[in-house]
Design a protein that fits this description.
Layout lengths: L23 E4 L5 E6 L6 E8 L13 H8 L11 H8 L9 E4 L4 E8 L3 H16 L5 H17 L3 H13 L14 H6 L2 H11 L5 E7 L3 H12 L23 E7 L6 E10 L6 H25 L8 E10 L2 E9 L5 H18 L3 H20 L6 H14 L6 H11 L5 H11 L9 E7 L9 H13 L24 E7 L4 E6 L4 E6 L7 E8 L10 H13 L7 H7 L5 E7 L3 E8 L4 H11 L7 H16 L5 H14 L19 H12 L6 E6 L3 H11 L23 E7 L6 E10 L4 H25 L7 E7 L5 E10 L4 H18 L3 H18 L3 H14 L9 H6 L3 H11 L5 E7 L4
Parallel strand pairs: 2-6, 7-11, 14-18, 19-23
Antiparallel strand pairs: 1-2, 3-5, 3-6, 4-5, 8-10, 8-11, 9-10, 12-13, 13-14, 15-17, 15-18, 16-17, 20-22, 20-23, 21-22
Length: 926
């Protein structure tokens, strides 16, 4: 960079950042790298990764898509696991396919993800054996390869649509004609259908080799034992005698400015991108490079706030805008400006983006902006440091994967926090403004690419390439002035409210709860925990919600919270609030659901008072801002304008309208005309009607708070909430799904894509136990759907069943099968899933499959018992439903008590073949 770095006293900027003491990094004689860290959260769990520095960029011309295909073959047979054995074994120890066990392929890497429970030594040994097989033991059986073609083609089919069609035009330009544009990981359909088996075996032999691999092991394991297992399982792997060179594709520099306009009739939104010159950028691993990242992050945050401010105008230039340095690949970056376009189209967005960037380049940032950004950054690192012994293993794994692939430094959060405390105060406003001048390209110096992506509508024509270039050239000529900063308060409230007191207190020692009653009648349930060191979560829910308003008010009720939120608080806009709360970690949101009024929040320990202040202010006043309201409505209308262009949106909308016979109380895809029914004054009245009284509210706080310190704050703020008369309780407004067998076809979209939705619903007695049995039955049948419809028949890539029991507003159930497929396979998919439902009704589940579900649930529960969010949710649900919260502790017994016969009976109850809605999406008739 062309700006001077301030001198550092203790840290020498040219020195390399050392690897932190928290991780053991080693390398075997064959070149395989490994990372090991002992970490106790979650308990009895080990996160394993196999990282391969090989992705689609390395494919030969006859291998397009085969890096990704190789990843699929890792689950289709290996030296120690026959086809299907691997997934079945891992499911039997509680590892869920997709949710836990997974992998991904990108341009430059393939990463395999394997979380393993460590309560059984055999699990750990087999976990490393799985990674060993992935690294060097895939069988690549010809029949298995051919079987997998259909699954890959279904995955490719899922990605087809407007975005895919437009990207195929744009990618060669974005990557300046480099190899990246020709190596999309999903590959090309003709090659997937017809490649020779030798081609995929060649890719595996060439690139899956130890000198391009890393094994990452983080979790509840002795590091010495992990190292022994890595040496045992990977030490014997050999590199090829004549290894192919692992090179990295270059992205050439753009020679001249050009514009590209790409439209599609199925595009649901319009967007603009200005990409400035691409630059090579490799992490040097020094303190100087680390400092530069801090500067870049500060820069991104400050410029981002400026773009937010532009979007909050009465007639904003765009729906949302951004300017920042972005990564094209791990080795290349560019400065980009982008926007989601509003009703004005491309020209006002170009004006705003180009001129705001020019303003920042010419005049820099203000001292106030810089101070807020520094506060926010320091707080982020402080929070991470405070949780250093309570951070999930998965977070650490990501750092080590990036270190191997991108050379990201890994000093550990303790060292990193120390570095930031020394480096950040020494970064000056002059440093920031020098960085802005060096980073934001000058108009006259840069060859750029201007891209418009959007819909092809006759009533809203897209600009031409010449018009885009002319708009950019004109915007660059405009003289800009420095931004004016208004002075804001530094605190939300000048003084606390008069407050109230605590009039009753009781303890529940079994669950670790303290129950309070405040002098205004508001109740509080407190559960102090040590699950995190610096996290407090809050919730309050009561019955009410949109159900208490008539059909004529439903749009105002649906958007009341969003309208109030978009206008800010007190005399402050939402962006003003962000600025006032700089350096604080506290959020609060309100929710007007169908049948409940809800408040949720979170805070760090030192910011609990700020969170409670936000609750008090949200429930005692609203800010009316006609300009921000106009901006909000305009954005909603624009977002809705092309929403129905996508066939998936048409499909979902038809499904809802069919299920509920166009009932206005059931939310569908928004149309522009919907917002004609939205009225500012009425929306504010709806909000006040539900949130200006805390009567019958019970607030629940879970987390790392000190009981003695938090109680006075609760009395002050929650005890001061108004508790005037308010209607409490919900109304059953009579929304019911259609009865009988209803079948409908939807014709939409130009691609050969279909989707099947089969929906069962009806009245059913509610109990927690029955809800659990229904969920277990659905999870078992999803195992079967994967085994039969995907693996055996190759009819789908993904999909399955979901549903549950509801207690309110009436006791009922819903079960939905969602299965994307090809038009030619619709009848086969319907027949296959119907056969699985019939099998469940007649035979019940296989015991082995039920045990897989149970094991996964028990492991998830064990982890959840040490999470604040889980306790908050369970306590809130128990309070709302009037059930015993101690049932949380009985969960393992309930899970173990589920029987195959109960699931068989559940299938018989809920798969009612005389009452379901079937909607199928087909492509439109040509």
């Amino acid at each position: 960079m062309a700006f001077a770095l301030s001198a550092q006293a203790a840290i020498k900027l040219d020195d390399a950042i050392p690897v932190g003491p928290q991780v053991k990094v080693g390398k075997l004689a064959n070149g395989l790298t490994y990372y090991i860290q002992k970490n106790g959260k979650p308990e009895k769990k080990l996160e394993l990764r196999l990282v391969v520095k090989a992705g689609s960029i390395l494919e030969d011309e006859d291998q397009l898509g085969l890096a990704h295909f190789t990843e699929h073959m890792a689950f289709n047979g290996s030296t120690n696991f026959k086809k299907h054995e691997l997934v079945s074994y891992l499911q039997s120890i509680g590892v869920k396919f997709g949710a836990d066990l997974n992998a991904y392929t990108s341009f430059d890497e393939t990463v395999y993800i394997l979380p393993i429970p460590t309560d059984n030594r055999d699990n750990i040994d087999k976990g490393f054996l799985v990674l060993e097989d992935w690294a060097g033991g895939l069988t690549m059986n010809a029949a298995d390869i051919d079987k997998e073609r259909g699954i890959i083609l279904e995955e490719l089919r899922l990605g087809k649509g407007a975005a895919d069609r437009m990207n195929k035009v744009i990618m060669p330009k974005l990557y300046n004609g480099s190899r990246y544009a020709q190596r999309m990981p999903i590959g090309q359909e003709p090659i997937i259908k017809g490649f020779k088996h030798e081609a995929i075996r060649r890719f595996y032999q060439d690139w899956y080799r130890p000198d391009l691999m890393a094994v990452v092991a983080v979790g509840d394991i002795d590091p010495l034992e992990a190292e022994r297992l890595i040496k045992q399982h990977f030490g014997q792997l050999k590199n090829p005698v004549r290894p192919r060179a692992r090179t990295y594709a270059a992205i050439p520099t753009r020679a001249h400015t050009e514009a590209l306009v790409v439209t599609d009739k199925e595009a649901s939104s319009n967007a603009l991108l200005i990409r400035y010159p691409v630059k090579e950028s490799v992490d040097k691993g020094t303190f100087g490079a680390y400092r530069e990242k801090l500067v870049e992050s500060l820069f991104t945050g400050m410029l981002g706030q400026r773009m937010q401010e532009l979007a909050q105008q009465a007639n904003p230039p765009f729906i949302a805008g951004a300017s920042s340095v972005g990564k094209l690949t791990p080795r290349y970056t560019s400065f980009n400006a982008s926007a989601a376009l509003g009703k004005g189209g491309a020209t006002p967005a170009i004006d705003a983006l180009v001129q705001e960037n020019a303003r920042t380049r010419q005049f820099g940032f203000s001292a106030q902006e810089f101070e807020r950004a520094r506060k926010n950054m320091m707080r982020q690192y402080e929070l991470a440091y405070n949780e250093r012994d309570k951070t999930d293993s998965g977070s650490y794994v990501g750092e080590y994967v990036r270190n191997f692939l991108e050379q990201e430094s890994i000093p550990g959060i303790a060292n990193e926090f120390a570095y930031v405390r020394e480096l950040l105060p020494a970064i000056t406003l002059d440093d920031m403004n020098s960085y802005a001048r060096a980073t934001i390209p000058a108009a006259s110096e840069s060859a750029k690419l201007v891209v418009y992506m959007g819909s092809a509508r006759e009533d809203s024509p897209a600009p031409t390439s010449a018009e885009l270039l002319a708009a950019v050239a004109q915007a660059e000529k405009v003289t800009v002035r420095a931004q004016e900063q208004k002075t804001l308060a530094t605190e939300l409230m000048d003084k606390p409210p008069a407050g109230g007191g605590i009039v009753a207190q009781s303890e529940d020692k079994a669950l670790g709860l303290t129950r309070l009653t405040l002098s205004n009648g508001v109740k509080v349930i407190l559960k102090p925990t040590d699950f995190r060191n610096d996290q407090v979560m809050m919730s309050a829910v009561r019955f009410g919600g949109q159900s208490l308003f008539g059909d004529a008010d439903i749009v105002n009720a649906r958007y009341a919270n969003a309208v109030v939120g978009t206008m800010g608080l007190k005399e402050y806009s939402p962006l003003d609030l962000q600025k006032i709360l700089a350096g604080k970690a506290a959020t609060v949101s309100l929710m007007l659901g169908n049948h409940v009024d809800g408040i949720s929040g979170s805070a760090a320990n030192d910011d609990i008072e700020t969170m409670l202040q936000l609750v008090y202010l949200r429930m005692t006043g609203v800010r009316r801002d006609a300009d921000l309201y106009k901006s909000f409505v305009g954005k909603q209308v624009e977002a809705a304008r092309n929403a129905m262009a996508q066939p998936e949106s048409v499909f979902r909308d038809t499904l809802i309208s069919t299920m509920y016979r166009d009932n206005p109380r059931v939310a569908r895809t928004a149309r522009p005309a919907d917002f004609d029914k939205l009225d500012l004054e009425r929306a504010l009245a709806v909000y006040r009607a539900r949130f200006f009284s805390a009567r019958d509210m019970t607030f629940i706080l879970v987390g790392s708070f000190d009981l003695a310190k938090v109680k006075p704050l609760l009395a002050t703020y929650l005890g001061a909430l108004p508790v005037g008369e308010i209607e409490v309780g919900y109304k059953d407004v009579g929304v019911r799904p259609v009865r009988g067998v209803v079948k409908k076809e939807v014709r939409s979209g130009s691609e050969a894509k279909s989707s099947v939705s089969i929906n069962f619903s009806g009245e059913a007695p509610y109990s927690d136990d029955e809800a659990m049995r229904l969920q277990a039955m659905l999870e078992v049948i999803n195992i079967r759907i994967t085994d039969i419809l995907r693996e055996k028949l190759a009819l789908i890539y993904g999909g399955g069943m979901s549903g549950g029991l509801s207690k309110y507003p009436y006791e009922n159930y819903t079960v939905t099968a969602s299965l994307p497929t090809g038009p030619e396979n619709v009848d086969k998919v319907i027949a296959a899933v119907m056969a699985e439902m019939a099998r469940m009704k007649e035979q019940g589940p296989d015991l082995a499959d039920l045990n897989k579900v149970k094991q996964n649930w028990l492991q998830n529960h064990q982890k959840a018992l040490r999470e604040n969010g889980y306790w908050l949710n369970r306590l809130q649900t128990a309070h709302l439903q009037g059930s015993d919260p101690a049932e949380i502790l009985a969960y393992p017994q309930k899970v173990n008590g589920i029987t195959p016969e109960q699931l068989k009976q559940a299938a018989q109850r809920y798969f009612d073949m005389n009452n379901y809605v079937q909607v199928v999406l087909y492509p439109e008739n040509k």
